Structure formats: structure tokens, C-alpha cells
Amino acid sequence: MPRAAAPRTDISHSPSAHRGPSGTSATSGTPLISLVVPCHNEAPALDKFYRAVSAVLESVPNARFEIVCVNDGSTDDTLSCLLALRRADARIRIIDFTRNFGKEAALSAGIDEAQGDAVIPIDADLQDPPALIPVMIERWRDGAEVVLAKRTNRASDTVAKRVAAGLYYRVHNRLSEVKLPENVGDFRLMDRRVVTAIKRLPERRRFMKGLFAWVGFHTEIVEYVRDPRAAGESKFSGWRLWNFALEGITSFSTVPLRCWTYIGVSLALMSLAYGSYIVIRTLLHGIDVPGYASLLVGILFLGGIQLVGIGVIGEYVGRIYYESKGRPLYLVRRRYQSSVKVSHLPARTGVRHVAGKAIGKLTRLDMSNNGEAGKSSAAQSVPRPRFRSSGSREGTRPFVRRMS
Q1: Architecture of domain 30-237 in this structure
Q2: What is the DSSP letter of 227?
Q3: pLDDT, tens digit, 9 for 90 and up, residues 37-94
Q4: Locate the Glycosyltransferase 2-like domain: which residues (predicted)?
């Protein structure tokens, strides 16, 4: 039985693999830079964001831009604001989700839809400064395949969030082989080859920072000071950040599973040592009154340890469960492309009109077929009368049923 061919992992033939020394594509001349902007209830900040971004993009020479905005199930006027901006700027493309699928799905959709030689994910809240984009593009033109934007401080965050973030980076980098650069978010520039590699990853439960780090490539870092939000508030609550941290660790490390083997061995050795101590003490000093308190504490301790271990296993089983479903990462309700054509489901009135025309056509076709069948049947069942033509030749005339 022939073996299936292994999937290709060679990404050296992507368009951006042949950039010239100035960063331009050898085939298209001026490079196209794609900005990916995930949006969830960001209506108050979109106007400020667009003004800041458009001013920066105009200052970048020898480059074309597109802005891919992903509306992640917003419940405010985000989509209306995006449509208004798109009417003023044809470079804006809008991907409208059917519901809220989360920021990781929105980033993935933007990366999937982006057509540029380089892709820059950026938030719409202006905490990531658009003024850094020309610096990142310059580093990319100098040969960097990934340009990371690193925060020099987190003064805009609360003390608790800064402490939790620092602790998370240390724990993650200790447990995982994929090291996350500290204080680096999604704001970065990625070459087309990097984007191609990311699009080949099949995960549905995604931790994008880890995936960005996993693919590797030649990386450079630029530093910046993170500003407060331009408008609105953060969509990440404490509980959501906790779940996000668990997602990151379970996505890139099996140490939490492996450590329970060592915990079990340690507890077994401790139990053996304590049992030996009890036997020796009983042989030397006789039987004491049983220690109900220590017995209860030991049972509760072991029960708690077991429940924690089951919970850790459950996290990994849950990931397997979600991955095995094979559901799409996101669903797109409508695409507002750069061209005049808009890719979307037709409106109900249009569907009814097309359906009515189709039904009418089928009805006429059916009536025509029935009429032909009736004529054929009648011609076979009714005798045809003989008649004498004017030319004294005998002929036949088809039977015709007259309707009164």
C-alpha cells in the first residue's frame, strides 16, 4: 500500500523570500504591508486610531498598505464605524465574524486574510504606538524576518497585573521549551515566510504569542513605552487572564502532567518512611493510642493532591476534546473587500426573488414536459383519420383536441 506524502514544510519559495536589499519584492516592486486590527467593541477609539495610523502610513516611502480590520462580534457601533472609515479609505478591508470568537481567532483571521509581504498585528486602543511602524519596516528591509515591539515598562498597568505578568513569563519559560520574550505582546512585524509558517499550524485552541515564538526566524527587537488606552476599557478580566495563562502553559508544555509522576513517587517514599517509623516505634515502645487527627489530615492532604492532579489531566483532556471536534476556528458573516464587490450571504429579499424565478422556471418546464407527454400519449391512443389531399395523395393529419 503506497504511503501518503508528507506535508510540505519548505517555505523558501514564498514571494517575500526574494526581496531585494531595499525590502521590495522582486516581482511586484513596491512591497505591500498589511496591518491586522482585531476589534471588539472599539467604536470609541476607531477614529483616533485611524487618524494616527493614516498619518504614519503617509510618511513611509516606497510602500503600499492595507488595513485588515476584524470585527470580533462587537455589540456596539464598531462595524458602522469601520464601514464609514472604509468609505473614506479603500485600503481598509473588513472581516465581520458571526459572533465573538476571541482575540486569538480574530488575529488568526486577519493573518489568513492579509495579502502583504509583511504583516503587522496592532490593537485599536493605541496602547501600541503606530509611530513605531516605520522603524519596524526599516528593520525588516534591513533583513529581519520578525521585528518585536518590546515594552520598556508597564506603567499603564496596575501593580497586580505587572506582578502577575512577570510571574507568568518566568513560569512559562521555565516549563516550556518555547521561550516567550518578556513584555512583548502581539504588536510585531512578520515577514510573509513567517506568516506562511503560522498559517500551516493546525491548532484550534490558539495561544498566538506562543505560536509566534514557536516558528522562530531571524528576530530583532525595538523598544517603546506603552501608552494608556485611547478610549474604552480592557476586555481581559482577571479570570480571563488566568484562563489565558493556563492556555499558554498547556499549549506548549507537558511538565504539569509529568510533575505528578514525581509527586506520586515522593509521596510513596514519604509514606514508606513514615510506615517504617511507625513499625519501629511500635516494636520498641508498644502500641500507642491511634492518631485520628494525623490520619484525617493525611487523608485530606492526599485527597486534595489527587483532585489537583485530576484537574491538570482534565485541562489536557479538554484540549484534546476541542481539537478532535475539528470545528473551524472562526466563521465569517461578511467580507468587505478592497474592490467594489462585497462577499456576503445574499439578503432575504434577494433570496426570495431568485427562488421565485427558479420555482417559476421549474413550473413552466414541468408543464411543458407534461404537455409533450400528453400529446405523445394521445397520438398513440387515438386513431388518426385519413384524408385526401388536394394532390390526390393519401396522407395523415395529427390529432388536435379543441378546447371549448
Answers
A1: Alpha-Beta Complex (3.90)
A2: P
A3: 998 888 888 888 888 888 888 888 888 899 999 998 888 888 888 888 888 888 889 9
A4: 34-195
